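Morning run. Coffee first, then this:
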Amino acid sequence: MLMVIVASLVAIVIWAVLAARLERWHVSGPVAMACAGIVTGLVVGPDIGTDLNTDIAEKTAELILAVLLFVDATEVRGGFLAGERGLVGRLLGIALPLTILLAFGLGGLLLGGSSWAVLLAVACVVMPIDFAPAAGLLRDGRWPRRVRHTVAVESGYNDGIFSPVFAFALLYLSQSHTEDLGTAVGAALQAAGIALLVGVVVGAASGALVWVSVRRGWTRTSGVRIVMVLVPLIVYAIATPLGGNGFVAAFLAGIAYKLCRNARADGQTDIPAAELSAVEDLATTTSMIMWFVFGAVGVLVLEIGFQWTWILYALLALTVVRLVPVLASMLGSHLPWRERIGLGVLGPRGTSSIVFGLLAYNAMNDDDGDIAVYVMVVVVLASLLLHGVAMAVRARSAHASGSEPHPTAAH
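And here it is:
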């Protein structure tokens, strides 16, 4: 485990000092770190699975997820739903539950005799949207700005909504020896209540304190940056020992912090970019660690071998299971069909799926854990190739040839 940690940190340093050069070669940070992880995984071998299946690895992944969810909740620009309440509301309130149900049902057909809790957890692994491996899509003018903006806002909140469902599934699996659904539901509600209390209280108090301090000139931007780095760590450290879900608490803390930090009469809804820079850098660093681990975990997939039903499940989750619920959620809206399809197509998977997959692997028995990590690797790798490479190459080719914009750009 120590070798993997050191190797990931060295890889991050190398990527950081070569980031500009790698970008000119069209090699993103996630791609670079995944490649470094693959090399390390081949050196370490199948023993990487033993390293990941430890309490330390589990808590580290949870803490990283807490930071990522806090950042997601605080950095959405333009208010809570960023001026796209109708579209984002449809995606989060209609399309997201439908994707869980569809992925759950598809898992029952393609993933074998796994329990319903395993299928629910795997559905949460493969569906969260994350633009880390395909950030260029958000700047691709061939897609309408409304489409890009809406999906970006959705990606800021959907993994926070998936998190309690995922946590419930893992909690039930941890108590599966009792086969008592009522006990699991009660424990999940208790954990959610503690997460809600800790997250809202600490987040709101921190945000209000920063608002007062900045307003009266008691602090500087550098001090606020330190606060934002520490809040998700404090929330996780308080919620977890009390029996709450630490990463769900961090997400709620981010929402509460943002609301109280911006409780001002001038109508300001966004946290200043200068205050976000430190916690965003922390999120980037932890995200790079996860991409390194993702590459290393690929060795486990090679060890398992070719499982065509699992691969089919992952590919369908990346495409049909995303597109159909999105189209269903837009029925009755005035959005052109071209833009509806754009919302369904722009659905990359990334860091959230990796962290969920690692947590599932750690919590499940060997056979079910293999399924979770296998479909995670396939869906993220396929998304990296589709959204991070193929679409980027097509965009550059269209720009170089001066061809017409993507058909979804017509509006």
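Residues 403-411 have pLDDT under 50 and may be disordered. Good start to the day.
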